[in-house]
Amino acid sequence: MGRAPCCEKMGLNRGPWTAEEDSVLVAHIERHGHSNWRALPKQAGLLRCGKSCRLRWINYLRPDIKRGNFTREEEDAIINLHQLLGNRWSAIAARLPGRTDNEIKNVWHTHLKKRLSGGQTQQRATAAPKRKAKKTEAAAAVNGPTTIPVSSPEPSLSTMTVATEDYSMASSADQNTTTDCFSSEEFQIDDSFWSETLAMTVDSSDSGMESGEPHCMDSASPSSNNDDMDFWLNLFIQAGGMQNLPQI
DNA sequence: AAATAGTCCAACCGCGGCGGC
DNA sequence: GGCCGCCGCGGTTGGACTATT
């Protein structure tokens, strides 16, 4: 179909982004938003294609990105969500605040898949970060003032903080809900977060908002994409949920 | 100290879906 | 109804980095 070519390769930069490019992109998005990715690089004066800019922003420069190792809870959540959703990384990422689909995909392929197939006891979640520090620091340097203090160097589940706006979820019709959820400067997530996160995919739609509290991660908010997913999630849960799933 | 193997992750590529014309 | 353009997604890869020999 009329798919646009990836980018006109003539004269456009490729490969790793420089700190300068990063700051230009961040500054431009902060000022003008990103309503049109294709036009953005031109407007910002970047020699990149729109796709590349979008990817860079979503996976790296977004202020609400949570850096650092995945916790055991997060990994478990990914495993569970993957059982439910399959390789729909973006859907999984939408339920893990601060994590990108790319990151989740990487973790899945490098750790979780092995863990599941090998049945080996996973050690990464508790292991000290070996390599990430450098790149993370670099990223922090790049992000500079645009970065909301997302997490401590070694983010713990109990003190995880996320940005005021959740870009991944605020992009659609559930923006109001999102705003409500992230209305404070810092959003504390306690240890029950992950179990609740998973539970919410069920509760919020089959029983409505019984708690009377808006759910930050509410996948059942009237977002078009999630409606279908929640329907299937509900169906799945009603059919017996995870317990009936064979172990991978 | 150097070479090699293994791991991790940022970025690219190509496809499908959606909306506008 | 069909074409076109854009966006978002998932798969893949190349290079940087660390661990081991």
Automatic annotation (TrEMBL):
<keyword id="KW-0539">Nucleus</keyword>
<feature type="domain" description="HTH myb-type">
    <location>
        <begin position="9"/>
        <end position="61"/>
    </location>
</feature>
<dbReference type="Pfam" id="PF00249">
    <property type="entry name" value="Myb_DNA-binding"/>
</dbReference>
<feature type="region of interest" description="Disordered">
    <location>
        <begin position="115"/>
        <end position="157"/>
    </location>
</feature>
<dbReference type="GO" id="GO:0005634">
    <property type="term" value="C:nucleus"/>
</dbReference>
<keyword id="KW-0677">Repeat</keyword>
<protein>
    <submittedName>
        <fullName>Uncharacterized protein</fullName>
    </submittedName>
</protein>
<feature type="domain" description="Myb-like">
    <location>
        <begin position="9"/>
        <end position="61"/>
    </location>
</feature>
<keyword id="KW-0804">Transcription</keyword>
<feature type="domain" description="Myb-like">
    <location>
        <begin position="62"/>
        <end position="112"/>
    </location>
</feature>
<feature type="region of interest" description="Disordered">
    <location>
        <begin position="204"/>
        <end position="223"/>
    </location>
</feature>
<feature type="domain" description="HTH myb-type">
    <location>
        <begin position="62"/>
        <end position="116"/>
    </location>
</feature>
<dbReference type="InterPro" id="IPR017930">
    <property type="entry name" value="Myb_dom"/>
</dbReference>
<keyword id="KW-0805">Transcription regulation</keyword>
<keyword id="KW-0238">DNA-binding</keyword>
<dbReference type="InterPro" id="IPR001005">
    <property type="entry name" value="SANT/Myb"/>
</dbReference>
<feature type="compositionally biased region" description="Polar residues">
    <location>
        <begin position="144"/>
        <end position="157"/>
    </location>
</feature>
<dbReference type="InterPro" id="IPR015495">
    <property type="entry name" value="Myb_TF_plants"/>
</dbReference>
<dbReference type="GO" id="GO:0003677">
    <property type="term" value="F:DNA binding"/>
</dbReference>
